[in-house]
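Researcher: I need the complex structure. Ligand is iron/sulfur cluster. Inputs:
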Amino acid sequence: MDIRKIVLIQPGRDGRVLGKATALPYTLMRLASLVPEEIAVEIWDENLGALENRILTELGPNDVVGISAKTLAIETTEKFTGLAHQAGVQYVAVGGAHATLMPEHVSRWADVVFTGEAYFTWPAFIQDVFHDTVQSHYDDTEWADLGGIAPLTDRVIAQVDEQRNYWTPLLEITRGCPRSCTFCTAIRVSGQVMRFRPVEEVVEEIERRKIDRFFLTDDNFGLAFRINPGYVEELFRALAKLPLRSWTTQAEMMVSQFPDLLDMARRAHLDKFFIGFESVNPNNRSELGGKSKGQTDDYLRAISEIHEHGLGVVGLFVYGFDNDTPATMWETWEFAKAAGLDSMSQTILTPYPGTPFRQQLLEEDRLIPNIPWRLYDTAHVTYYPKRMTVEEFTREYDKICRTVYSPLRIAKRGTRSLARISRFSFSALPRKIFSSFSTDYGYRREFSWRHTS
Ligand code: SF4
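Model: Output:
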C-alpha cells in the first residue's frame, strides 16, 4: 500500500496549563524521527486539542496511525482506533506501556500491536505496509544499546515546537533499572539492564533542541552513580559547559554516598533528585526491590547529605502496601517535614498489568471489579487494601493531599529551597525561582485534575 501520511497520536490525560501541555510527546518524537523523510509524518497530541473530529475528517484509507498509550489512556486509545477505522484507516498500530504489558487486551481491537521499544520494529512495520506484508504483532524486547537509536530529526523538532506548546522538555540519558520493585512497570517496559546514551549524542540533542532545562525520562538515573560512575563523570563534565538553567531526574537515595559526583552534579546544573523512598513503613521492605528499606533514619541521613551539596530532594512515596494503614500517610508527612524535603509526590499503589503486585491481587481476589482503566492513574484506589477499607484509604489520601499541597505549605517549601540554594550561589537564585515552586504546584494541580476529570 502507498502511504499518504503517518499520524502518531498521543491520547491526552493531563490537561493544559496556560495553553501549554505539560509533557512533551518524547517517545512519539523519537518514533516520528524514524519515518523516512519521503513520507509525511505528523504528531497529534490530544492535550493540545480534541482529536475526534480531526480523526474523522483528516484521515483516510492511505494513512497509517500509530498510538502510544499508558494503561490509563487505553480506553481513549480504543475509541480513537474505532474512529480511525470509521475514517477508512486500514492500519492502526498501538504500542507503549499498556500494549507491552497486556498485548492480548490491545489485540482485540487494534490492527497491529507493538510490544517493547519499537525502535527496530517500527521501521520494519513501515516497510511491511509498503509491501502488504503487515503482521499483527511486532515485538522489540532485545533492549538494544542506546547509541544512535532514533535521534530526533529537525523536521520533528520544528513540527512539535516544544518551546511554544509544552511546559516540560523531556530528555533520555539512560534507560532500564536492575531493581525489582513488585509494583514497577518501567522495568517490564524498558528492561532490567541499565543502558546509556553516548554523552556526545545527549549534548548534541540538547543543543539542537535549544533547551535550557529538562526532566529526564530515565527510570532510575541515580543508579548510574554506582553502576557506571565513569560515564556519569563524563556526562556531568559535558553538561557543566552548557548554558543550562536546571534539570531534574529520578534517583535513589544511594546517590548520597557519592559526594564527589554530587558536587559535579551541582556544577552540571542538576537542580534536584526525585528519590523513590516509597515507604516509611519498614514492614514493606520486601516490596521495595532493594533500594529502600523503610528505615527513616537512613532516609534522613541521605537527604541531609544531598542538601549539603546544594541539591534538592523531592521524595516519592507510595501508599497502600499490605502493611499500610491510614496512619502511614500521616507518618510520611511528619517524616517529610522533619527531613525538609523540597517537595513530595504521594501516589496510591496501583496494580498495573504484568506486575507481581497485580498477580498477587488476582490470586487473592482483591481487584475491585469493573474499575475503568482510566482510574489506573495512581490517584484512585483500584483494589481492596489489607489493613484499611477502600473508603478509609480514599478519604485519608484526599485529606493528606490537601494538607501537603496547600498554598501555604507550597510557599514554605519553595522559600526554604531558595534559601538553601542561596547558600551555594546567590547569582543562581533568579534562575531557580520557577523550579523551587513548580514541582509542588504540579503535584497540586495533578491531584485536583485527576479527581475532577
Ligand atoms: S527502582 Fe524504580 S525503576 Fe527500578 S524497579 Fe524500582 S520502581 Fe522500578
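Model: Summary of the prediction. The longest strand covers residues 270-278.
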